[in-house]
């Protein structure tokens, strides 16, 4: 089935390579790609704030994945934690969803580890504590990430962990059952 997926820039409804602005943001370079989305670095034209804009081609999502995407957006709107990537704004057109998120300029911790090797123990302990704090916050708010890995842990300008939670189909809302645990919905 993956062989039937065409590159994003070839879609007749999604001329991503021709976009220069989205709302009040000037698009810059591509910083990530996936089957249904492209992530672009962008700058707010007034404040000059750098952001990441995830551009999702709705026409390439089936109904189930579109519902999951909107559920994940609703989850991200509620989450406010210093170690979780913040969703600033959502814009939508007929064929596209634009998610304006906090930008983590030092990229994925995975790339950091590949380029620099093993972290010193004090740095690793700090990163781990930040990740645990973010996951604990999610759990306390009834959200389970289900895809924690180095590629979904970003580093901000101060090398703090930012858990990226908007990963298609991954966060789930939980409902408490008695005091013994959680049940996935």
From TrEMBL:
<protein>
    <recommendedName>
        <fullName>non-specific serine/threonine protein kinase</fullName>
        <ecNumber>2.7.11.1</ecNumber>
    </recommendedName>
</protein>
<comment type="similarity">
    <text>Belongs to the protein kinase superfamily.</text>
</comment>
<keyword id="KW-0067">ATP-binding</keyword>
<dbReference type="InterPro" id="IPR011009">
    <property type="entry name" value="Kinase-like_dom_sf"/>
</dbReference>
<keyword id="KW-0418">Kinase</keyword>
<dbReference type="GO" id="GO:0005524">
    <property type="term" value="F:ATP binding"/>
</dbReference>
<dbReference type="GO" id="GO:0050321">
    <property type="term" value="F:tau-protein kinase activity"/>
</dbReference>
<keyword id="KW-0547">Nucleotide-binding</keyword>
<dbReference type="InterPro" id="IPR008271">
    <property type="entry name" value="Ser/Thr_kinase_AS"/>
</dbReference>
<dbReference type="InterPro" id="IPR017441">
    <property type="entry name" value="Protein_kinase_ATP_BS"/>
</dbReference>
<keyword id="KW-0723">Serine/threonine-protein kinase</keyword>
<dbReference type="GO" id="GO:0000226">
    <property type="term" value="P:microtubule cytoskeleton organization"/>
</dbReference>
<feature type="binding site">
    <location>
        <position position="54"/>
    </location>
    <ligand>
        <name>ATP</name>
    </ligand>
</feature>
<keyword id="KW-0808">Transferase</keyword>
<dbReference type="InterPro" id="IPR000719">
    <property type="entry name" value="Prot_kinase_dom"/>
</dbReference>
<dbReference type="Pfam" id="PF00069">
    <property type="entry name" value="Pkinase"/>
</dbReference>
<feature type="domain" description="Protein kinase">
    <location>
        <begin position="25"/>
        <end position="185"/>
    </location>
</feature>
<dbReference type="GO" id="GO:0035556">
    <property type="term" value="P:intracellular signal transduction"/>
</dbReference>
<dbReference type="GO" id="GO:0005737">
    <property type="term" value="C:cytoplasm"/>
</dbReference>
């Amino acid at each position: 089935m993956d062989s039937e997926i065409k590159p994003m820039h070839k879609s007749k409804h999604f001329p991503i390579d021709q976009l220069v602005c989205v709302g009040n943001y000037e698009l810059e370079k591509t910083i990530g790609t996936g089957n249904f989305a492209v992530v672009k670095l962008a700058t707010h034209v007034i404040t000059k704030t750098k952001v990441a804009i995830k551009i999702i081609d709705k026409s390439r999502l089936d109904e189930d994945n579109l519902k999951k995407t909107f559920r994940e957006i609703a989850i991200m709107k509620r989450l406010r934690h210093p170690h979780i990537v913040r969703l600033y704004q959502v814009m939508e057109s007929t064929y596209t969803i634009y998610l304006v998120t906090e930008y983590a300029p030092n990229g994925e911790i995975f790339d950091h580890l590949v380029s620099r090797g093993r972290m010193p123990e004090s740095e690793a302990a700090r990163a781990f504590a930040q990740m645990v704090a973010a996951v604990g916050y999610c759990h306390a708010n009834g959200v389970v990430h289900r895809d924690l890995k180095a590629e979904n842990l970003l580093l901000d300008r101060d090398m703090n962990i930012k858990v990226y939670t908007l990963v298609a189909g991954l966060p789930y809302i939980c409902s408490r059952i008695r005091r013994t645990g959680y049940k996935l919905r």
